[in-house]
Amino acid sequence: MNFLQTIFEQLRRDPSKAILQEMKDGQWILTSCEELLDNVTRARRFLAQKGLVRGDRCALLAPNSSRWVALDLAIMAEGAISVPLYSRQSADEVVMILKDSAPRWICCSDRALADGLSSRWPDAPPILLFDKIWGDSERPLRGAAVVHARRMALFSDASAVSPLDLSYQSATTLIYTSGTSGEPKGVVLTVGNITFMLEQTRRRLDELMRPVPKKGDDRVFHYLPFCFAGSWIMLLTCLSRNNCLMLSTNLNNLAEELKSANPHYFLNVPALLERICNGVTSQLQQRGGLGLKLFERGHSAWRHRHNGRKRPFDWMWRALAGAFVFPRIRERLGSNLQALICGSAPLAEETQLFFQMLGIRVLQVYGLTETTAICTMDEVDHAVPGRVGPAISGIEMKLAENDEILVRGPNVFPGYWNRPEATDEILLEGWLHTGDQGQVDGRGNWKITGRLKNLIITSGGHNISPEPIEQMLTSVLPKVDQVMVVGNGRKFLSALISGKAQAERIETALKEVNGQLPHYKQVHRFYLSPELFSEENGLLTSNRKLRRAAIEERYRSEIEKLYSE
Question: Which of 67, 482, 522, 523 has the CA that lies 20 to 30 A from 227?
């Protein structure tokens, strides 16, 4: 049974059960399994009337919602290929992706998104609004659509909905990479890729929740856009487990919605966990008093023990902080919280240790869109700070001579959309060349040390991965938004920094970090940008990764000044 058959079977099993919740105007709006199936049925009917056939691409430009879920399932169930797009991405980038994928239809959630697209691309394929898709689905069927409807037995009984018979090699979605090192590329994922991956993620979540007394579904909160591979896999995992998913619909209200959801776990990017960590520390510093003193002493004592350095009375400070401060912080983050799941980019070890100190597990995953989002997952009770866990069951990972991580297994994609040369460059002799450099310890736990394409080679011949240095600087500069280390072909490293920080504080931070680094990795100069790096100005990708080439081009003259002084 493939993943779509599993999901539809689960939805049929308990029609009245809530499977999705959306936060709207401070209230959770429920969608039952029966309602989701009905929306899938009506969307399939509409698409059949429009002539969508197996293998067609159908783009999906919308924020997360229950209708997004229904339409994505409907497209895949018809044997077509879903092309999810980021609704907050620049219109020019969306147009570029659409021209590459050549969809037959573009489905938009609202008129504003549709108009923005049409203004940039007057010759775009037909745009279908969500209201049109579901509003017109009551019209009678004609011609070939009648035969199609009878074959699927869809329209007299919504619970009879079922996907077409698809082989494991069938392409089912086309997810575009973030484009950190060039134009986004369309990653083709198959029914087999996704079916395999959901077996792994279901197993790990079952393991996480096994010790928790079962009182209904796991409470799962979700705020990351479904157009990202890892986020989409979490959605499909919940559907295949028949577990309700709580959707955030307004990132501006994320803190309030998270408090209301009170989840057992949720998927994160490092930026949010670092923001939580810095926010907790800042609030304690503002309040001051005994609480701050206990926290600081307890934090120091906990780090001493972690680093194997015993100090007099550390046991006392750990006990006091563990009794009166850490539990209160943990309670504010959620009384149900079992784990924070983190992916998309390396998480600073200091951040993971902070949550571990509070008694909150942070479970990391590592993967690429090309590996169906996941290659490694932390073991629930054996997460090692700074590492991303062992390879998931059923796949192989190894290091090449240049420490590049290679992957082989049923999670590896068949190739890029219409880019055979790019496919041949990354898939060699059955192994996927990830472009990431790593290390693996004796227990098989992996550590990501950098990107080959980001490697800085100084004029002295030293090969330096900038990411670990950037993480170190960010951890000691909580008011800084982004840090990018430069210095390729130069005598020394410098840093471009954006965010609210004083030059004096940055100089102090550089001394602190440089003291922990060999001379060739030390950062000697910096430029503090008054402009934040963002998606809107093209300096960050949609998942907040640095567009390094674009940043270097934007700040070319500032970089030259750093090395001419």
Answer: 482
Please give the DSSP secondary-structure letter assigned to residue 253: G
pLDDT of 262 > 60? The answer is: yes
- Same topology, domains 3-212+223-251 and 270-335+337-404+412-450? Answer is yes
Q: Give the H/E segment covering residue 129.
A: strand 127-129
Containing 197, the helix (H) or strand (E) segment is helix 191-209
Q: What's the CA gap between 242 and 33, in Å, rounded?
A: 9
Q: How many whole angstroms separate alpha carbon 518 and alpha carbon 433?
A: 29
pLDDT (tens digit per residue) in 349-406: 888 999 999 999 999 999 999 999 999 999 998 999 989 999 999 999 999 988 999 9
Per-domain boundaries in the chain: 3-212+223-251, 270-335+337-404+412-450, 455-564
Radius of gyration of the chain from Cα atoms?
Answer: 25
Distance in angstroms (rounded) separating the CA atoms of residues 516 and 519: 9
Residue range 152-165: mean pLDDT, rounded: 55
pLDDT at 159 over 50: no
60 sits in which H/E element:
strand 57-61
Q: What value does the mean pLDDT take over residues 214-227?
A: 92
454-499: per-residue pLDDT in tens?
888 887 778 888 988 998 898 888 778 899 999 988 889 999 999 8
pLDDT given for residue 548 in this prediction = 87
What is the maximal distance between C-alpha atoms in the chain? 84
* CATH node for 455-564: 3.30.300.30
Quote the pLDDT of residue 50.
92
Chain segment 307-324, per-residue pLDDT in tens: 888 888 888 999 999 999
Chain CA centroid to CA 330, Å: 24
Strand, coil or helix: what is 259?
Answer: helix
Spatial distance between the Cα atoms of 116 and 92, rounded to a whole number of angstroms: 10
Which residue's structure tokens are 């394409």? 453
Torsion of CA 353, 450, 196, 15, to 10 degrees: 50
Sorting pLDDT into bands at 50, 70 and 90, what band is 180?
low
Helices (H), 111-177: 111-120, 130-135, 144-152
Predicted confidence (pLDDT) at residue 75 exceeds the cutoff of 90: yes
Are 82 and 107 a contacting pair, CB within 8 Å? no
Concatenating the DSSP letter of every residue in 451-502 gives EGGG-EE-TT--EE-HHHHHHHHHHH-TTEEEEEEE-TTSSSEEEEEEES--
CATH for 270-335+337-404+412-450 (3.40.50.12780, 3.30.70.2740, 3.40.50.150, 3.30.70.20): 3.40.50.12780
If you ran DSSP here, which 8-state letter would residue 230 be given?
Answer: H
Instruction: Please report, to the nearest 10 degrees, the dihedral formed by the alpha carbons of residues 414, 415, 416, 417 taken in order.
Output: -60
Give the containing element (helix H, strand E) for 374: none
